[in-house]
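Feature request disguised as a bug report, sorry. It would help if multi-protein outputs had a clear separator. Right now it looks like this:
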Amino acid sequence: MSPHASDLSRRTLGGAAVAALGVAATTSGTGTARAATSRETPFRAAADRRSRRPNILFILGDDLGWADLSSYGAPHIKTPNLDRLARQGVRFTDAYSGSATCSPTRFSLYTGRYPGRTKGGLAEPIADRSVGLDPNHPTLASLLRGAGYSTALIGKWHCGYLPDYSPTRSGWDEFFGNFGGALEYYSKLGLGGEYDLFEGDAEYKDLRYYTRIVTERASAYVRRDHGDKPWLLNLNFTTPHWPWIADGDEEASAEVARRIRAGDRRALFHDDGGSVEKYTEMVQDLDRSVGQVLKALKESGQEQDTLVFFASDNGGERFSYNWPLSGNKASLQEGGIRVPTIVRWPARLRGGQVSHEPVFTPDWTATLLEVGGARPDRAYPLDGTSLAGYLLRGEELPAGRELFWRVRGERAVRRGKWKYYRGKGGADQLFDLTADRREQADRAADEPELLAELKAVWERTDATLLPYPV
């Protein structure tokens, strides 16, 4: 282990001082956040518990920032349902997305590998029909289905378009949602003006507010009688992704749709719309929607044996609250990749806990495969580390393990408390994230050996990935 490696893995099992740090890191002086975190204790596995293989409800918000939940410090956004989920499970403070934009992170989740392992993962994000997730590549869904799970994806896919790419070609038994990266919430028009709401591979007409439709579908799925089979539901909201249209904003919706139909290629980006208040409304709607699905899960009698995971696909966007992190979506600064992450599994995990372990999207793929009794395909080795031993048996994660990211023009590696980062300016920087989450105190000159070591780690990993197309 490097002498510079963090002692975070030991600290997560430490005493009350660590819990106090976790609370201070997220309260931002607000009563709501303080109430959500004040009773948290440092994570400790409940190694003596046993249960059957869990159902898996994997929920993604879209472009939700790290501090956009009141339990993560937002002073002006109220998220009681997600705060309750955190109190009932484990809240992660140092969890990351697999990349800084939508589709690469989804590639890393579905494959358990760095986005750069596959051609489709090089698009940041996918914007046309030329690439997608190869139907021959094993996925979280195909591997769990092979282990006896029913599988469904509801909501945003963004891993390729018909006719070549679809969730139903990559291991999901059922799909209901949109193929593209964004859509207008009422008309369902996508970036190219196409209608983008599908059931399976067929268009499905419903002009109600999209988040309502997705919430209804997900609630119906978890209430369904699945017999003796466990199930995986990937529930991918588009909320709070632009355009900045909340439930009831039909006039704004009609104007954006009119501009899309008139050929305005920037209409859906809604550059001239939105506000902090509108964004707050959308995040709170996401929270209510998650609450409705969780209510359906409880009423179905499956809550105890269902592992619920909630996170964002990448960092926040224009109106997101990311303090104290720097950067946002599309950047490998903390604000672009650190995301709120909550895991609840009543049968196996104690509630009211907080973990400060650095983890990222491919780790969750490996974890879910293990708890679901599915074996990865040896021809496609995973880049993530299963957290099942840490979460369920109290095992420490490998000392000094590295998390790796690459996007065009930026690079990053995290090892323990240290982060190596090179932005588009080209300077190699080193940050101690325990002392400086805002990434303002560059320690490169103080730790030249560590900087060189982490830079070499990045370059060795990068050499194993596909190059970006010129």
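(second protein starts here, but nothing in the output says so)
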Amino acid sequence: MKRSVRGCYQSEGYVFAKNAGEIGKQHGLERVARLASNENPDPPSDKALELGFAALSNANRYPDERQVSLNDALMAAHGNYHFVTGVGMDGVIETTIRTLVEPGELIVVSTPTFSFYRLSAIAQGAGVAEVPRGSGFSVEPAPFIEACEEAKLAFLCTPNNPTGNGTPPEVIREILEHIDCVLFLDNAYVEFSELDYLPLLRDYDNLIIGRTFSKAYSLAGLRVGYAFVPEWFRPYYVRAATPHTLNAVSAAAAVGALSDVKHVKTARERVIKWRKELSGRLEYPVLPSDANFVMVDVSPLTSDEAVEGLARMGVLVRSCRSFRGLKDHYVRVSIGADWENTMCIDAFSRLNP
């Protein structure tokens, strides 16, 4: 009966980083530096844990489908914007596509980038136009705008995964001035940068800005995503969303996390410090980054060769081989705890070309 599976799932799917426990067992290591998944090495804040545990006692009830408490907390933290929520950024992306895109319509993606845009579009029956980035993996407005002429929706990640570089707000403004489709700006890593795209929301009603609690807020395991959206879009998104997807525990923990500004500040300061350290001390070229990771050129090694060599020394990083449009000699290295970053520097120094 395998023939019953849709063609888009016969040959590809999302590529996950290797599992730290499996790497440790394979190489006889007591501990592994987990630098492959762009996680925050700090546990959730005390306030997030407190509200999450409290919500667990009412787990016999369905969560609030309107997510009023989380919406109010987002407004208190960011201002009087319109929000939608989902199960991680992935859930917001998937529901946005479901809301806007009919089978056969076109989605534009700036590559190399997060693969889930393309996978979600194909799952919806949409076509995908990939626009290669320019020098230094920068976004070139002209070809991106041209590709959007026939599109319903476009995705642009900034800071970009896996390259790490951010796109200046003035470039995003130029794009918005010349397109008619909706632009989804993925800001999963924006807390680690100086970039601010929120002012653009006041001027353009075709802009959606997605964010996540997985990175700066340490809630990767609870899967909470949200987006700033135009007022017209929100009721349609709610109709398209799967009922009760964001569970009550995750939503309550997110409310608590938003109230702990110090937690995010600590994570941001550590990332900025260690981005500079890795850029100066790794014995391979490190690309400029605005995110909580850096991309490293490991040539003449291939991505997988470098990942395997580092894993033998207890450092788990992400191979970039699966990122479409990226040559096979890059790895992505997350900023971890101090001991993990130090271990990473040492392992790279012993990585033989």
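Even a blank line would do. Unrelated, but nice: The first strand starts at residue 33 and ends at 35.
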